[in-house]
């Protein structure tokens, strides 16, 4: 109980310093269940509150973090032809990935949580936990070389416009993490798309790309590695001949599946040792995360399943149509490339922005799968479709819910009339019936 | 195939509201409930789909130099377009009043105001600027109207949903509607860049 006593002792006064108290409250409820109780009315008291729910989601994506940070390093070294086997140069790849990933993680959280804390103090309520999930998702969907200033702008945009303007956690219409990503995509289109953003740490030197390092690599870690007698970071290593950094999707769009298999094997794509956004590449680990979410009942399996069905249906139709090389990619192989599973497990199932009725979830998921595949395959402007498809369907989710509820009401009214149960006629019902 | 392409383009890719921001006044004013938004959306589809071909005939067969009068009267274009739109709206108003008085009452002043809905005049002017032929203009009218209809019922459903949200006081009402329209515009950018014509072979 030592910690609890200590925490109680340092609790700031709510009146005198509201900001500090909000801050304190946020961290206190992170450690302990609060002892304040609600009075009056009907309330459910359950240890599985919003904070625990959010933490399960964050836990479910930890494997993606582990793999993502290692894969940043692997792609970096694979580009220059060093340590091409996946586990070679383990310490170098891991340290390189962490040096790249940790600043992204910190910036996303400091900016997002800072805004969240400030709003909570301003409004005088407890800190809402919504940003824990968004903040953990944002680094995973960024390219590894993302400039931190842009990231800060994007997170601020997502949190302020996408969430706080709507009234905070649980009120947003569009997915906050995706809004931050789409902000970067549309605000810096020339520098954020193309082949070169997916592999970190390469810069122009002479007429070719070569590795560059900063003080952390050469000053700090090279010293440590040398003293241990391990391999060190070598600056100025040129990339291998014919290197482009193109993701499987970019290759498939231009030249079809044949061009993809020349560079990447299907096992490699399945396990995720390919360039891409940080957390999206490793399919098995994402599926484990999806399994955790389904088992704990946090994410809806209906949305995941219907999204899969929608994507398969659309890819299959494209196979039938087959006028561009990308359309001829067999439908199964579409799932080896890109971020379908990540979007399915963590993005589409966001319970706030998805449709909330059961029928609505099937429709919503199916349309995401269908529209996303359309954007991926036939829209030359965007390499991947899931981010935009989910945002697109987020806009329509309330409409889907509205009509699902309407049709339920209509069906029940009809059923009641058929079985002879008198429907009480109120002035409101009359007015509705007239329309 | 061309008909289908232009329909898809007008409805999704170059949505009149969310890509060109036309017809905002009634879009913002009548989007508080899905039911009235639905009615107004249908009326806009109807008016666009009728005025577009009529305006095409006027523009190409009467006003143009190669038309039946043989003189260049294109300077009359705007005024005639507006006259056609206004008379069509009158017609729609009479039909709706006769067929469904309830819808007529719930739409109120916004039904005659379709006359000054810029999406409708804008549609006719796009048609002229893009040299559409007759069937293209029918497709554009239907597609543009359908896109407008989709946009207004989507925002109406969202506004019904956020009615009880704790929106900052300064943003309540129209402020939120503007932010929402912008965010919906971002979502609709997902389809921008698709060229249906390039696919139909």
Can you give the mean pLDDT of chain B?
Answer: 86
User: How many beta-strand elements of chain A?
Assistant: 2
* Most residues in contact: chain pair: A-B, 38 and 35 residues
The portion of residues assigned to helices of chain A is 55-70%
Instruction: Give the low-confidence spans of chain A.
Output: 421-435
Q: Order of strands in the sheet with the most strands of chain A? A: 1-2
Radius of gyration of chain B: 18 Å
Question: Structural class from helices and strands of chain A?
Answer: mainly alpha
Oligomer: heterodimer
Can you summarize the main beta sheet of chain A? Answer: 2 strands, antiparallel
Strand content of chain A is under 5%
What letter string, H or E per element, gives the SSE order of chain B?
Answer: HHHHHHHHH
Q: How many β-strands of chain B, per DSSP?
A: 0
Based on CA inertia axes, which overall geometry of chain B fits? globular
Keywords, separated by commas or semicolons:
heterodimer; A: 435 residues; mainly alpha; 2 domains; two-stranded antiparallel sheet; globular; B: 201 residues; 9 helices
Mind explaining what this structure looks like?
In chain A, a hairpin with a 2-residue loop joins strand 1 and strand 2. Chain A is globular, with a radius of gyration of 25 Å. The relative contact order of chain A is 0.09. Helix content of chain A is 61%, strand content 2%. Chain A has helices at residues 2-9, 18-31, 50-60, 62-79, 90-123, 130-140, 148-162, 176-187, 189-192, 215-228, 248-255, 257-263, 266-271, 283-295, 301-321, 340-347, 358-378, 386-418, 427-434, and strands at residues 202-205, 208-211. Chain A has 435 residues and is mainly α. Chain B has helices at residues 2-13, 24-29, 34-63, 77-99, 101-107, 118-129, 134-161, 174-188, 196-199. In chain B, helix 3 (34-63) packs across helix 4 (77-99) and helix 3 runs parallel beside helix 6 (118-129). Chain B is globular. Classes of the chains: A mainly alpha (435), B mainly alpha (201). The A-B interface holds A 123, 161-162, 164-168, 171, 173-174, 179, 182, 186, 323-324, 371, 374-375, 378-382, 385, 388-389, 391-392, 394-396, 398-399, 401-402, 434-435 and B 34-35, 102-103, 106, 153-154, 156-158, 160-162, 165-168, 171, 176, 179-180, 183-184, 186-195, 199, 201.
């Amino acid at each position: 109980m030592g910690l609890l006593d200590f925490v109680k002792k340092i609790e700031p006064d709510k009146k005198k310093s509201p900001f500090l108290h909000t801050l304190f409250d946020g961290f206190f409820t992170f450690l302990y269940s609060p002892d304040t109780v609600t009075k009056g009315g009907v309330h459910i008291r359950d240890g599985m509150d919003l904070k625990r729910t959010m933490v399960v989601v964050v836990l479910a994506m930890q494997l993606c973090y582990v793999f993502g940070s290692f894969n940043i390093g692997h792609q970096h070294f694979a580009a220059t032809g060093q340590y091409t086997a996946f586990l070679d140069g383990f310490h170098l790849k891991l340290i390189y990935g962490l040096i790249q990933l940790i600043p992204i993680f910190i910036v996303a959280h400091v900016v997002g949580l800072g805004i969240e804390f400030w709003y909570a103090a301003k409004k005088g309520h407890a800190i809402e936990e919504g940003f824990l999930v968004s903040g953990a998702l944002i680094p995973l969907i960024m390219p590894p070389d993302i400039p931190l200033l842009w990231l800060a702008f994007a997170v601020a945009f997502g949190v302020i416009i996408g969430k706080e303007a709507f009234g905070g956690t649980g009120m947003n219409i569009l997915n906050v993490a995706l809004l931050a990503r789409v902000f970067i995509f549309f605000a810096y289109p020339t520098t954020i798309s193309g082949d070169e953003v997916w592999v970190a740490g390469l810069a122009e030197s002479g007429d070719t790309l070569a590795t560059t390092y900063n003080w952390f690599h050469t000053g700090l870690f090279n010293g440590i590695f040398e003293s241990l007698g391990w391999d060190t970071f070598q600056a100025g290593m040129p990339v291998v001949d014919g290197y482009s950094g193109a993701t499987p999707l970019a290759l498939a769009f231009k030249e079809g599946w044949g061009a993809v298999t020349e560079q990447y094997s299907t096992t490699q794509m399945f396990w995720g040792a390919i360039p891409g956004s940080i957390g999206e590449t490793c399919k098995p680990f994402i599926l484990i995360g999806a399994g955790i979410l389904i088992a704990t009942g946090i994410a809806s399996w209906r949305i995941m399943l219907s999204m899969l069905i929608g994507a398969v249906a659309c890819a299959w139709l494209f196979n039938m149509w087959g006028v561009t090389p990308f359309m001829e990619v067999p439908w199964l192989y579409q799932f080896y490339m890109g971020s379908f599973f990540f979007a399915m497990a963590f993005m589409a199932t966001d319970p706030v922005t998805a449709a909330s009725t059961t029928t609505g979830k099937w429709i919503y998921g199916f349309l995401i799968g269908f529209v996303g595949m359309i954007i991926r395959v036939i829209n030359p402007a965007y390499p991947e479709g899931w981010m935009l498809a989910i945002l697109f369907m987020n806009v329509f989710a309330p409409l889907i819910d509205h009509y699902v509820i309407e049709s339920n009401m209509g069906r029940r009214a009809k059923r009641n009339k058929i079985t002879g149960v008198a429907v009480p006629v109120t002035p409101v019902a009359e007015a509705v019936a007239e329309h | 195939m061309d008909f289908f392409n232009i329909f898809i383009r007008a409805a999704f890719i170059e949505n009149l509201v969310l890509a060109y921001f036309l017809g905002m006044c009634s879009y913002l004013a009548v989007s508080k409930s899905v039911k009235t938004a639905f009615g107004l959306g249908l009326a806009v589809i109807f008016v666009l789909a009728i005025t577009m071909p009529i305006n095409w005939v006027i523009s190409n067969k009467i006003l143009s130099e190669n038309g039946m009068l043989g003189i260049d009267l294109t300077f009359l274009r705007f005024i005639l377009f507006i006259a056609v739109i206004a008379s069509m709206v009158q017609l729609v108003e009479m039909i709706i009043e006769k067929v469904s008085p309830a819808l007529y009452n719930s739409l109120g002043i916004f039904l005659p105001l379709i006359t000054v809905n810029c999406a409708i005049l804008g549609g006719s002017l796009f048609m002229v600027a893009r040299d559409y032929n007759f069937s293209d203009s029918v497709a554009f009218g239907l597609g543009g109207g359908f896109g407008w209809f989709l946009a207004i019922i989507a925002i109406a459903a969202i506004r019904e949903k956020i009615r009880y949200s704790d929106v900052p006081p300064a943003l309540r009402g129209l402020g939120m509607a503007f932010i929402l329209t912008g965010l919906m515009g971002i979502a609709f950018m997902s389809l921008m860049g698709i060229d249906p014509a390039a696919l139909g072979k």
